[in-house]
């Protein structure tokens, strides 16, 4: 009856007793309470309304109730709803409506005691533990751990034995028992607030610990406090009613909801109606409190799923069908060379349902990849590179889909291919390796299992044969002690090793095209070089082609044959790697080169590295004119019109800039501005595909 | 690794022991705070003060508290929890006969909750859309409805209206396994409504979180069939919080059984604690509190071992 942990909002997992269960669980940034969410859903509006009506009606009960709670009407014992008794009567002919409303205030009021004690004490302990350091935290956590492993119900009953049915007191002690769970929920948030920069600043300013907790930590906890308060309120109501039901309610003849339901349970046989009004009243009240808690506790922007639900997949299938009917019939003539990828006018956008609906993330992107060549997709974070890359495999996260254009693979339009049919392409024709190898491997299974299962599936091999092939593959990607690695779990190997395993996994189906999404970004510098040279030799040995997503022009110079520079969802310049690196035509390419010490082909290192001021604009803020205009050193009035992608004059290269020719003639440079010379723009990997706009300045060294 | 495992178990056992001891002290103090001395309670109203004093003296009620506690503890570790003040029966024997009732109830309800909850939770996460909303709505209702109210509805529908199940009473397994199952049916279903809803939510949230993990994308990129991604890989990843939720549910149902036992007139621990609290039967109250704590602590211990076994990261370290 009494929960051992704090209740969780409907769409969140329950915090569990085993404290160290999964410490890495995402913790949403604590947020301040805003009332607006309260009115964001029908449920919570109805909940607030019902609670308001109930409280108002109950407090004014003596003024309007047709009967006193103890009035007995012997002409109407155990009656159903009648004109005189709207909700019927009980075994003594007492009016149910009057009793329900008259006892509401007491039930609600005493439940609030539990809320205040539980949430108050839990929050206080959490703030204390967060502020006072590890030793205090450990001590408090130990105590709460013991509290959480107590049989709460039995203890509360023993307390009742000692203090009698003193409801306010019992609800208070109940609050103490529940506070341990609240503490557990609050602690993480309090700690993260305590470690914020402004808290450090306040400490330097000499603000006292208590002052910091009150001024900086507590406000950040308000939303969780309100959520927990609402949910605990519901729990308190249920427990209080439950106690009254088993005979530990307010002293007779005072009415209570639980006691009334208990009375009704005695008359299931002769008056089943009796349990309906009180039960419904209690249920509605609990539902209201839960609805409020759930509405406030709703995670605002759930991370996108990598396997959309069946309903979402159906929706996407419809979108694919639309694209298939809109796109011109694929060119299936023999003229198409095997193993070529040709992306034509690809657009990707946020689906029309949900947050940010209709926002374009990638617009009108075209490029080609010949067999055995490497194409680099270059740009800062938030330029749509990863979305472009994932769409090649049909692996866009939920809520994002291809909205137009073609992805022609051997003449077949993958953008118009169903998810089911894509299963024959993925792994076998096109494979993927991603940025964080550790997270790309399933932590629950051994490397050997993951690899052999994939080989068996993609190559139709038997178990023993697949095992052998797994070892071969690991050796091929440069792992010496393959036999040992096969037996390990992903968390037991290093990042570089994990990336090799991930590459082996990608090679399992002997793909013709490898999509590599920043495959070296998360690795140590020395390991980066090793992985790059591995990829290079794989291209030579197997003849596969690669689409390499990167922000690092050094990687481009190292491995790519062709480059497509992307900015804000568009290709702004493309062409052969050497011509683009030596002779960039687009100011953005120029700026990227100027900002990257490794890519500078000039034999003398510049004294100051240039930076690109500002950030890639958010997709919803893309201008109709040149999207780079806000940051471009050469921007002029002509740049406010839409800019087409035109031949750059260097080979087959294309460039999207009105001043490209002029710049080429004048040979202008991207100027270094007065910012720390050793810093340059580096792109942080985004974990959340929806928050594409994270740019962090980071030392390149 | 063997050594660290042994160390881990020892540490946890000590922690569990400490918890039980803390509760034992707590229970002892609570019981002493109860109104009425043992003599007054056992002799009932109308007994002479002299008789009451005599009983109290014989039971050691006037000894210093620590001495009383250690006397009690000494017999408790030997399995003797004293005698009831009301009927003079051995508390240990009484509780031993009641434990199977509550245990069957809680275990049955947990199993049913787990089956229902995992099924519905996975379905909601996997299907999404309307199905998800319906399951979410039903689960939301189910956690808001008090178990005793749901119980009455079931009694009305399944026992009164259509007498599918007996409305009240408990038949021991030894007498008739079939009747035992039938007598458990209604209380188990009653408790499983809330429990199932709880586990369904837990499962849904954990499954969705599992599907947000990047390795799911790797699995898709290597053409893993959808069913395998969902039911082998995602479910495996979600298994830790789900198992924790189930263990939690067992603990709550074990305590919550007091309501089902009252409603369905079942002679379990819940009924014992309810009776002994009303009659101020101190040794019984103390005994139930300790037994319940031992059960809860044992379940938590099993949960931790299960977690350690399920999580490769913990298993290896
Ligand atoms: S079009 Fe104008 S703003 Fe855009 S890159 Fe060229 S010069 Fe800069």
Give every kind of bound small molecule, once each: iron/sulfur cluster
- Write down how many β-strands of chain A occur, each being a DSSP E stretch of 2 or more residues: 14
Q: What is the mean pLDDT of chain A?
A: 82
The largest sheet of chain B, given as strand count, sense and whether it forms a barrel, is: none
Fold and architecture overview:
The complex is a heterodimer of chains A (701) and B (317). Chain A is an alpha/beta fold and 701 residues long. Chain A has helices at residues 42-59, 61-64, 96-132, 134-148, 152-163, 167-194, 197-204, 209-245, 257-265, 275-297, 310-326, 385-392, 419-422, 437-440, 447-459, 463-476, 482-487, 495-507, 525-542, 553-559, 577-582, 587-595, 660-666, and strands at residues 341-350, 360-369, 374-378, 400-409, 412-413, 430-433, 513-517, 545-550, 562-567, 570-576, 646-647, 654-655, 679-683, 695-699. Among the domains of chain A are: 54-297, MetI-like (MetI-like fold), CATH 1.10.3720; 432-560, Rossmann fold, CATH 3.40.50; 587-700, no CATH class. Chain A contains 23 helices and 14 strands. In chain A, strand 9 and strand 10 (570-576) form a beta hairpin. Chain A is elongated. With 317 residues, chain B is mainly α. Chain B contains 13 helices and no strands. Chain B is globular and about 85 Å long. Chain B starts with a helix and ends with a helix. Classes of the chains: A alpha/beta (701), B mainly alpha (317). At the A-B interface, helix 5, helix 8, helix 9, helix 10 and helix 11 of A face helix 1, helix 5, helix 6, helix 7 and helix 8 of B. Bound molecules: iron/sulfur cluster (SF4). Iron/sulfur cluster (SF4) binds at residues 587, 626, 628-629, 632, 634-635, 639, 643, 657-659 of chain A.
């Amino acid at each position: 009856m009494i929960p051992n942990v704090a209740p969780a909002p409907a769409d969140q997992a329950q915090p569990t007793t085993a404290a160290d269960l999964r410490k890495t669980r995402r913790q949403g940034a604590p947020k301040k309470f805003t009332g607006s969410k309260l009115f964001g859903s029908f449920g919570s509006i109805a909940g607030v309304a019902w609670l308001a009506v109930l409280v108002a009606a109950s407090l004014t009960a003596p003024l309007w109730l047709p009967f006193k709670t103890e009035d007995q009407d012997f002409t109407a014992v155990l009656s159903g709803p009648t004109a005189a008794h709207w909700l019927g009567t009980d075994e003594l002919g007492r009016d149910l409506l009057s009793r329900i409303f008259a006892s509401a205030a007491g039930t609600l009021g005493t439940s609030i005691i539990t809320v205040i004690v539980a949430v108050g004490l839990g929050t206080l302990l959490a703030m204390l533990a967060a502020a006072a350091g590890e030793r205090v935290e450990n001590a408090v956590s130990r105590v709460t751990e013991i509290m959480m492993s107590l049989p709460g119900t039995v203890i509360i009953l023993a307390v009742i034995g000692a203090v009698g049915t003193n409801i306010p007191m019992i609800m208070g002690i109940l609050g103490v028992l529940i506070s341990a769970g609240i503490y557990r929920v609050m602690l993480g948030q309090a700690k993260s607030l305590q470690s914020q920069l402004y808290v450090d600043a306040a400490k330097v300013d000499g603000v006292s610990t208590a002052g910091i907790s009150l001024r900086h930590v507590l406000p950040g906890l308000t939303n969780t406090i309100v959520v927990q308060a609402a949910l605990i309120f519901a729990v308190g109501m249920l427990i209080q009613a439950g106690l009254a039901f088993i005979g530990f309610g307010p002293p007779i003849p005072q009415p209570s909801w639980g006691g009334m339901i208990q009375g009704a349970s005695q008359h299931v046989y002769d008056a089943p109606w009796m349990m309906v009004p009180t039960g419904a009243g209690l249920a509605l009240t609990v539902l209201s409190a839960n609805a409020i808690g759930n509405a406030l506790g709703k995670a605002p922007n759930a991370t996108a799923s990598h396997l959309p639900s069946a309903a979402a997949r159906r929706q996407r299938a419809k979108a694919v069908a639309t694209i298939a009917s809109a796109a011109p019939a694929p060119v299936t003539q023999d003229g198409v060379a095997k193993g070529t990828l040709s992306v034509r006018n690809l657009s990707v956008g946020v689906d029309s349902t949900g947050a940010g609906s209709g926002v374009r993330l990638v617009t009108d992107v075209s490029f080609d990849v010949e067999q055995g060549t490497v194409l680099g997709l270059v740009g800062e974070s938030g330029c749509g590179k990863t979305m472009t890359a994932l769409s090649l495999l049909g692996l866009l996260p939920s809520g994002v889909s291809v909205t137009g254009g073609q992805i022609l693979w051997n003449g077949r339009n993958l953008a118009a291919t169903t998810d089911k049919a894509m299963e024959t392409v993925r792994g076998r024709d096109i494979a993927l390796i991603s940025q964080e190898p550790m997270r790309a491997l399933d932590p629950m299974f051994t490397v050997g299992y993951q690899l052999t299962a994939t080989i068996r599936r993609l190559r139709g091999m038997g178990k023993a044969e697949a095992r052998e092939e797994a070892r071969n593959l690991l050796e091929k990607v440069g792992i010496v002690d393959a036999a040992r690695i096969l037996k390990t779990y992903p968390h037991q190997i290093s990042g570089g090793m994990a990336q090799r395993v991930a590459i082996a996994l990608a090679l399992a189906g002997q793909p013709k095209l490898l999509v590599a999404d920043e495959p070296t970004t998360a690795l140590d510098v020395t390991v980066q070089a090793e992985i790059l040279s591995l990829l290079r030799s794989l291209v030579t040995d197997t003849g596969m082609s690669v689409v390499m997503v990167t922000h690092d022009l050094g990687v481009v110079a190292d491995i790519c044959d062709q480059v497509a520079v992307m900015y804000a969802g568009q290709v702004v310049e493309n062409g052969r790697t050497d011509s683009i690196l030596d002779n960039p035509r687009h100011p953005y390419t120029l700026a990227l080169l100027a900002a990257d010490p490794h890519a500078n082909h000039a034999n003398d290192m510049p004294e100051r590295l240039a930076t690109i001021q500002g950030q890639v604009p958010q997709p919803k803020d893309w201008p109709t004119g040149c999207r780079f205009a806000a940051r471009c050193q050469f921007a002029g009035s002509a740049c406010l019109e839409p800019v087409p992608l035109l031949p750059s004059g260097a080979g087959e290269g294309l460039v999207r800039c009105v001043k490209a020719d002029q710049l080429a003639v004048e040979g202008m440079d991207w100027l270094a501005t007065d910012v720390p010379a050793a810093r340059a723009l580096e792109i942080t990997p985004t974990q959340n595909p929806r928050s594409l706009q994270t740019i962090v300045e980071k030392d390149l060294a | 690794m063997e050594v660290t495992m042994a160390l881990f178990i020892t540490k946890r056992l000590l922690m569990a022991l400490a918890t039980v001891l803390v509760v034992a002290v707590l229970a002892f103090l609570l019981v002493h705070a109860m109104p009425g001395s043992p003599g007054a309670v056992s002799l009932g109203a109308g007994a002479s003060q002299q008789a009451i004093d005599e009983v109290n003296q014989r039971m050691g009620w006037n000894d210093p508290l620590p001495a009383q506690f250690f006397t009690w503890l000494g017999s408790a570790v030997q399995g003797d929890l004293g005698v009831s003040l009301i009927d003079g029966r051995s508390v240990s024997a009484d509780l031993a006969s009641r434990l199977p009732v509550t245990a069957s109830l809680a275990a049955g309800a947990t199993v049913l909750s787990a089956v229902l909850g995992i099924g519905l939770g996975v379905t909601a996460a996997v299907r999404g859309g309307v199905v998800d909303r319906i399951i979410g709505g039903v689960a939301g209702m189910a956690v808001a409805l008090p178990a005793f109210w749901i119980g009455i509805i079931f009694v009305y529908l399944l026992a009164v209206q259509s007498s599918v199940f007996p409305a009240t009473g408990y038949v021991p397994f030894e007498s008739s396994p079939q009747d035992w199952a039938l007598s458990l049916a209604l209380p188990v279903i009653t408790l499983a409504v809330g429990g199932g809803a709880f586990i369904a939510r837990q499962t849904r949230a954990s499954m969705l979180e599992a599907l947000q993990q990047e390795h799911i994308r790797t699995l898709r990129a290597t053409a893993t069939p959808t069913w395998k991604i969902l039911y082998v890989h995602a479910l495996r990843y979600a298994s830790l919080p789900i198992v924790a939720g189930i263990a939690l549910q067992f603990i709550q149902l074990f305590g919550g059984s007091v309501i089902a036992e009252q409603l369905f007139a079942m002679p379990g621990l819940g009924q014992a604690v309810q009776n002994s609290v009303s009659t101020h039967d101190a040794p019984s109250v103390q005994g139930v509190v300790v037994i319940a704590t031992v059960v809860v602590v044992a379940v938590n211990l099993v949960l931790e071992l299960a977690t350690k076994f399920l999580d490769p990261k913990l298993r290896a370290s």
